[in-house]
Amino acid sequence: MSDAVSLATSIVSMQAVSTRHALSVEMLKQNAQAEQGIVAMLQQSAEQTQATLPAGQGALVDRTA
């Protein structure tokens, strides 16, 4: 009986670790998507700012960051 309890405890523990890992991966994916959205907004803003500046200005706007 003790072996069965030990095995069950081990299985539950492994499932909990697996669930935590899956949640961490999903959170990282969502964070990456949010950051990509921010980068796109910043790039668009930089392009719009450069488009509204007089000719020859705005060339130093770094859109690669």
Question: Would you kindly provide a written description of the structure presented here, covering whatever features stand out?
Answer:
The protein is an all-alpha fold and 65 residues long. Helix content is 78%, strand content 0%. It has one helix and no strands. The chain is rod-shaped, with a radius of gyration of 25 Å.
Question: SSE string, helix = H, strand = E?
Answer: H
Strand content: under 5%
Number of strands: 0
Radius of gyration: 25 Å
Tell me the distance between the termini: 60 Å
Helix tally equals: 1
Shape: rod-shaped
Round the mean pLDDT to the nearest integer and report it: 86
How is the main sheet built?
A: none
Helix content: over 70%
Helix-strand category: mainly alpha
Poorly predicted residue ranges: none
Write the layout of secondary structure elements.
Layout: H1 2-52
